[in-house]
Amino acid sequence: MSSSGPPLVAGIEAGGTKFNVVVGTSHEDIRARARINTTNPKETIGEVVKFLLGCKRRFGPVSAFGIGSFGPLDLDPKSRTYGFITSTPKKGWQHFDFVTALAAYARLPTGFDTDVNAAALGEYSWGEGIGADPLVYITVGTGVGGGAILNGQPLHGLVHPEMGHIHVPAPPSGEVLFANCQCPYHKSCLEGYVCGPAIAARWGVRTDRIPDDHPAVEDTAATLAHGLANIILTLSPRKIILGGGVMKMRGLLPQVRSHLVKVLNGYVTAPAILHDIDRYVVAPGLGDDSGVAGAIALAIRALHKA
């Protein structure tokens, strides 16, 4: 690291399918990146360390880590299991001490949060969420998750937000192959109806093959709108960002906006809802890099705090 330049940090977006790992000084200065398949903890973290060692030879050592991870997580610094992935259904990753595993490579300041809180922080720092506080980021993909920024900080509480599991009415369409909620824990939650696998089960087609005039688009939009209405009425965010692979369905985002206005039905009279919905519910400004940008932001914040 150059003494005159910004510090070099490592950002890790840890997903159930893949890890995206970057080394850089900001989202605009990513020196190197790697995509690592999520297998078991020993093998996956081994590949992360291998990548970081290669970057150290090329660019010098990093000064901090930032981790945005799938969960559930223990985010309470006072807890004896702080830094753990806890009761995840991901085989082999239950009760994994993520922060300590990285500390075995180098004991550095480490920012640790959920993948969706990290994505929210990335967008708040450099993307569509600049100046929007509170801010909510929802990812709709293999699962559904939500992160929030409140007073400039990722929202934590008893645990952390689990917006994918808020309860919503069943999607309106009766033309489906499988009508039931796909969540193993609940019978009517947002994730169980609109995550990618749930949509594929309902309609018998993958989301990346659904045309914009397919009834699955409106079916998904109507259900998402109910979820967003619950979030608006609870957290009153100044902006909502919708990311994830499902949101790449053609025509979905405009229909979500339209259904959201109908669901709220004039109760929230803010101009952002009534007149400016296209700039209130938006796609990520950083595209697919929201998560890694947020991991970088977590690392930078951890370094400043240290």
Quick synopsis:
The chain is α/β, with parallel strands linked by helices. Helix content is 35%, strand content 20%. It starts with 8 loop residues before the first strand and ends with a helix.
List the helices and strands and how they pair.
Blueprint: E1 9-14, E2 18-26, E3 29-37, H1 41-59, E4 65-69, E5 84-85, E6 96-97, H2 98-103, E7 110-114, H3 115-126, E8 135-140, E9 144-150, E10 153-154, H4 190-194, H5 196-203, H6 215-235, E11 239-243, H7 252-264, H8 271-274, H9 277-280, E12 281-282, H10 290-305
Parallel strand pairs: 1-4, 4-7, 8-11, 11-12
Antiparallel strand pairs: 1-2, 2-3, 5-6, 8-9, 9-10
Helix pairs in contact: 3-10, 6-7
Number of strands: 12
CATH architecture of the largest domain: 2-Layer Sandwich
Question: Would you list the SSEs in sequence order as H and E?
Answer: EEEHEEEHEHEEEHHHEHHHEH
The CATH topology of the largest domain is given as Nucleotidyltransferase, domain 5
CATH class of the largest domain: Alpha Beta
Q: What characterizes the major β-sheet?
A: 5 strands, mixed
Mean pLDDT: 95
Q: Assess the beta-strand content as a share of residues.
A: 15-25%
CATH homolog superfamily of the largest domain: ATPase, nucleotide binding domain
- As a whole number of angstroms, the C-alpha radius of gyration is 19 Å
From the N-terminal CA to the C-terminal CA, the straight-line distance is: 17 Å
User: Any idea how many domains?
Assistant: 2
What does this structure look like?
- The chain has 306 residues and is an alpha/beta fold.
- The chain folds into 2 domains: 9-115 and 288-305, 2-Layer Sandwich (Nucleotidyltransferase, domain 5), CATH 3.30.420.40; 128-283, Nucleotidyltransferase, domain 5 (2-Layer Sandwich), CATH 3.30.420.40.
- 35% of the residues lie in helices and 20% in strands.
- It has helices at 41-59, 98-103, 115-126, 190-194, 196-203, 215-235, 252-264, 271-274, 277-280, 290-305; strands at 9-14, 18-26, 29-37, 65-69, 84-85, 96-97, 110-114, 135-140, 144-150, 153-154, 239-243, 281-282.
